[in-house]
Amino acid sequence: MTTLLALDTATEACSVALLHDGKVLSHYEVIPRLHAQRLLPMIQTLLGEAGVELSALDAIAFGRGPGAFTGIRIAIGVVQGLAFALDRPVLPVSNLAVLAQRALREQGVQQVAAAIDARMDEVYWGCYRAEQGEMRLQGVEAVLPPEQASLPRGATGDWFGAGTGWGTYGARIAVQPAGQDGGMLPHAEDLLQLARFAWARGEGLPADQAQPVYLRDKVATPKAAP
């Protein structure tokens, strides 16, 4: 049986989750600015509850962003430390995808427009559709002004708005969701679920490839007008 640890500190929420013997345990706290102090104790508590040693882990999954720069770095620092020490692979997972997966779990929605407040009058934006229980990206993830957020080309049906981007900028987003939760934050339980799919596909990476995705570092240069 696969044993996976998942952790996330990319937003105000700090959470960890463990898959062992087919069972899932998780801890979740909304503790802005306390992630560095709480993450390792949360991991130790979770492993203790499950009666699992660190050496039993097959891989470690983490929220690779987008989100708060400092929070993402905290997660990556812990993940790399554990993965190097244990010689285990890592599984980077998008925090926008984690939001969408949480909306699927809690709301049963099949299409999600995930938005995280990116500050600086922008949102991190990604649209996802459920495919055999896994939220898969439709189009690309981006950081942009709320007014520029849009559904994928050819999108139909109802979409659910999930994430703090909706809470802060919902009135400025042109998309009209069938429902929304503007306070939803990523949860390691849903990160773990996405990691299970990735692990089954053989997508584990060496520890040194545990890298953040900030999106702001990947802004495309506009094409010159013809």
UniProtKB/TrEMBL annotation:
UniProt domain Gcp-like: residue ranges: 31-147
Subcellular location: Cytoplasm
Organism: Aquipseudomonas guryensis
One annotated GO molecular function: transferase activity
InterPro entries assigned to the protein according to its UniProt record, in alphabetical order: ATPase_NBD, Gcp-like_dom, T6A_TsaB
GO annotation terms (biological process): tRNA threonylcarbamoyladenosine modification
Pfam families reported for this sequence: TsaD
Protein name: tRNA threonylcarbamoyladenosine biosynthesis protein TsaB
Keywords recorded for this protein, A-Z: Cytoplasm, Transferase, tRNA processing
Domain of life (superkingdom): Bacteria
GO cellular component, one term: cytosol
Gene: tsaB
